[in-house]
Design brief:
Number of strands: 4
Protein name: Pentatricopeptide repeat-containing protein At1g10910, chloroplastic isoform X1
Shape: extended
Number of helices: 37
InterPro entries: PPR_rpt, PROP1-like_PPR_dom, TPR-like_helical_dom_sf
GO molecular function, one term: mRNA binding
Mean pLDDT: 82
GO cellular component, one term: cytoplasm
Largest sheet: 2 strands, antiparallel
Keywords: Repeat
Helix content: 55-70%
Low-confidence stretches: 1-81, 670-677
Oligomer: single chain
Strand order of the largest sheet: 1-2
């Protein structure tokens, strides 16, 4: 289990618009800034625009403050409001309490200002009423009662309920350039993408945002760094972000360091994690529990328990309270290092502190024991956990079911799978995969289908492992077309099948005369942006020849001739000359020649015979003769006589010219051959 990356928690702003006090407005400062509180006074005048003083605000903080001000001060605002404050407050309350927003918003919304609508937006957001929140925001967009704070608040309040696709559509709909590159709006959108597992997309969008004019702040970089923990080459991407942050004159704060430590741990960069941890302390920043737990997590990569224990002592000396995450991460260190006695002692401590009420600590120990071949000890921990009625989400079952399957104890695996079905009415893809694997290995087709139905009924999307389990099972049961359709579905959902599995399925499909399906699987591999085995090209070539799919076979030869043996290419060429598409004969000849394959007289005779039988293809015959002369190829006397005999079909003059060129070539080639002897 991965420890989730920490994101910035941003306090929702509450509107002071209807405060009974006339004292100055006070806005919350960011938790990442210095803790002094700045107050901003609104000085009203009947003849002058509203003025706000920000003299005491640091430059970076003033930038954040500006986004909040858009809720209260609009460049087009006037001190003369057509609707009284009490009437607007009444309208806000009516909308908030309405059971029919579809009618309440058009009826009452027109009397309200943007800041009033933002109050309503936050009201529904704080109550987690996502449907009403979206409805209000859509109305605000349609009626142009929207500003920077509206966009950023909406994205933050929707949280994971807002899909990455919806967030991007919303962002692209923003017409105003200044709003689109506002750092608060951009940060909210990037955070949404990261939280939805679209970290790669967030990095690409960030690049585009900068081109458009975004000036990123420290929050921007911390958000993107958090996402680097979950992407390929995330550590190198994180270093690029840190370098960019510093070159922009920004400083790394505790949140930035925390995100960077998490990236190091996720990508097994233990030494780098230590370096940044010490650098943070050298800069005078005090690590918190999150920083320590991230470094502990880095130590778990190689089970370095001595450094982990020293770090725990340092935490205690610093007066930090060891929480559940810290203890669980230390347990992970012990398990990874194979120190199972220490692990069991620490698990007892976790239970004593009340930190082992769910299955995760037990699962860490069970998984480590299983991977070390200590199946009986793992089962003992599982039984102990069940006896204590520890809350389980099925992960412990999946560990044991998978372990039994790998050890060939299929009856034990089936028994445990049945027990889970009887006791619990909730599933996830991990437990379903474990149960599916148990039934597949036992060859119980009815239970396999039952698990697949449960997955559909529970709206659980199959993952890479699910597809692999099913394809292997269908192949074992000789249901090759079902395995093929499953692989198609796997490919459509963006999962890349492994080459070994594809190669086996290609072989079985070829054996059962499913030649086009075998070629389809080959293409899945071919276009998967990975290097595939050279032997696979020749394997599919033989299958395509057997299925008389000669046009597809030509594509394979043309693209991969260097990886295919000469006998295989010759076999393909002979079959193509006999029955392949006559319009492609010349192309096949040229492709073979380009690959270094010297074309023999037999193939030329077969090709010319095909053309002679189809007089309407005389242009192709003449082109072939012309090409042969240019490449030094000579036709033999019998083929020459065949062409002369049928010259009336192609035009005597044209044939005579072509054959005369052939005669010139033959005279040049003959002395060369004699000299070679």
């Amino acid at each position: 289990m991965e420890i989730s990356s920490m994101f910035h928690s941003i306090m929702a702003l509450s509107s002071p618009l209807f405060s009974s006090s006339s004292s100055p407005f006070s806005f919350p400062t960011s938790s990442r800034k210095r803790p002094n509180i700045h107050k901003f006074k609104l000085q009203s005048s009947t003849s002058a625009a509203t003025k706000i003083t920000t003299d005491s605000i640091p430059r970076t903080e003033a930038g954040e403050f500006q986004n909040v001000l858009t809720d209260y001060v609009s460049p087009n605002s006037s001190n003369q409001f057509p609707v009284s404050r009490n009437d607007r407050q009444s309208a806000i309350l009516q909308i908030q309490e309405s059971s029919d927003l579809g009618s309440a918003l058009p009826r009452l919304g027109e009397t309200l200002k943007v800041q009033d609508m933002n109050v309503i937006l936050r009201y529904f957001g704080k109550l987690s009423r996502r449907q009403e929140l979206s409805q209000v925001f859509d109305w605000m967009q349609q009626n142009q009662k929207i500003n920077v704070a509206s966009y950023s608040s909406y994205v933050k309040l929707m949280g994971k309920s807002l899909s990455s696709v919806e967030a991007l559509v919303m962002y692209k709909s923003i017409k105003d350039r200044s709003t689109k590159i506002n750092v608060s709006v951009c940060n909210a959108l990037l955070s949404c993408l990261v939280k939805n597992g679209k970290s790669e997309s967030s990095l690409k969008l960030f690049t585009q945002m900068k081109r458009d004019g975004l000036v990123p702040d420290a929050v921007t970089y911390s958000t993107l760094l958090a996402g680097c923990a979950k992407v390929k080459d995330g550590y190198s991407k994180a270093l690029e972000l840190v370098q960019e942050l510093m070159s922009n004159g920004l400083l790394m704060d505790s949140v930035t360091y925390g995100s960077l430590l998490s990236v190091c741990a996720s990508h097994k960069e233990c030494n780098e994690a230590e370096k940044y941890f010490q650098k943070m302390k050298a800069e005078g920043q005090s690590p918190n529990v999150y920083h320590y737990s991230s470094l502990l997590n880095a130590y778990s990569v190689d089970g370095n328990y001595e450094k982990a224990e020293a770090l725990i002592e340092e935490m205690r000396s610093a007066g930090l309270v060891l929480n559940k995450v810290v203890y669980t991460t230390l347990l992970k260190v012990y398990v990874k290092g194979g120190f199972f006695e220490k692990s069991k002692e620490l698990l007892k401590e976790l239970e004593a502190f009340g930190y082992a009420k769910d299955e995760m600590p037990f699962c860490l120990l069970m998984d480590g024991l299983v991977k070390s071949g200590l199946l009986l000890e793992a089962k003992s921990v599982f039984d102990e956990m069940m006896g204590k009625h520890v809350k389980t989400d099925g992960y412990s079952y999946s560990i044991m079911i998978s372990a039994f399957c790998r050890s060939g104890l299929l009856e034990d695996a089936k028994k445990l799978a049945s027990e889970f079905e009887e006791k619990y009415d909730k599933y996830d893809v991990v437990i379903l995969n474990a149960m599916l694997s148990a039934y597949c290995r036992a060859g119980e087709i009815e239970n396999v289908m039952s698990m697949m139905k449960k997955m559909d009924d529970s709206a659980i999307s199959p993952d890479w492992n699910t597809f692999n389990i099913l394809i292997r099972y269908f192949c074992k049961e000789k249901l090759y077309l079902l395995a093929y359709r499953t692989m198609q579905d796997m490919h459509r959902k963006g999962h890349q099948p492994e080459e070994g599995l594809c190669s086996s399925l290609i072989y079985y499909l070829g054996k059962t005369d499913a030649h086009s399906e075998a070629f389809s699987v080959y293409n899945m591999l071919r276009y998967s942006k990975r290097t595939i085995s050279k032997s696979l090209h020749e394997k599919i070539l033989h299958i395509l020849i057997a299925g008389r799919l000669l046009k597809d076979a030509y594509v394979v030869v043309k693209d991969n001739a260097g990886f295919i043996s000469r006998p295989a290419i010759k076999r393909f060429a002979v079959n193509f000359m006999r029955s392949g598409n006559v319009n492609l004969i010349n192309d096949v000849m040229k492709a073979m020649h380009s690959s270094g394959h010297r074309i023999d007289q037999e193939l030329f005779d077969m090709a010319i015979s095909r053309y002679v039988s189809k007089p309407e293809k005389k242009e192709l015959l003449l082109q072939l003769l012309e090409w042969m002369s240019g490449q030094g190829y000579v036709i033999d006397p019998s083929t020459r006589n065949l062409i002369l005999k049928n010259s009336h079909l192609f035009g005597h003059q044209l044939i005579a010219e072509s054959l005369s060129k052939q005669l010139v070539v033959s005279k040049k080639v003959k002395p060369h051959k004699e000299n070679a002897r």
